[in-house]
Design goal:
This protein is mostly beta strands. The protein has no helices and eleven strands. The strands form two sheets. Strands 2, 4, 5, 6, 9, 10 and 11 form a seven-stranded mixed beta sheet that branches. It has a four-stranded antiparallel beta sheet with strand order 1-3-8-7, with no helix packed on it.
Length: 114
């Protein structure tokens, strides 16, 4: 089993920054492919960014150039640095990985508002 715990959400003004963290624990013996997703009120959950075990990265078009995903394999932690935040980035942000089956964290709320 894998447990994922997100942290770092909060309220930020437009143009501000936040750094989300997702710590993985459990039966992990090698780096996992991990991704960040978000779900805004009334909308479907969508992929924000992903990073493979080998370090290949992809971003959703809406966040490219503003968000940066990174990982610390020693800590089994993946980060999402979010800069120049916009009101439309407001959502619950979830971390996901796959090890036998899909594992999701409980999410952390990001609110971008003045």
């Amino acid at each position: 089993q894998v447990q994922l715990a997100e942290s770092g959400g909060g309220l930020v003004q437009p143009g501000g920054s936040l750094r989300l963290s997702c710590a993985a624990s459990g039966s992990i013996f090698s780096p996992l492919t991990m991704s960040w997703h978000r779900q805004a009120p009334g909308k479907q959950r969508e992929l924000v960014a992903g990073i493979t075990s080998g370090g290949t990265i992809n971003y959703a078009r809406a966040v490219k150039g503003r968000f940066t995903i990174s990982r610390d394999n020693d800590k089994n932690t993946v980060y999402l640095q979010m800069n120049n935040l916009k009101p439309e980035d407001t959502a619950v942000y979830y971390c996901k990985t796959h090890l036998g089956s899909e594992w999701w964290g409980k999410g952390t709320l990001v609110t971008v508002s003045s």
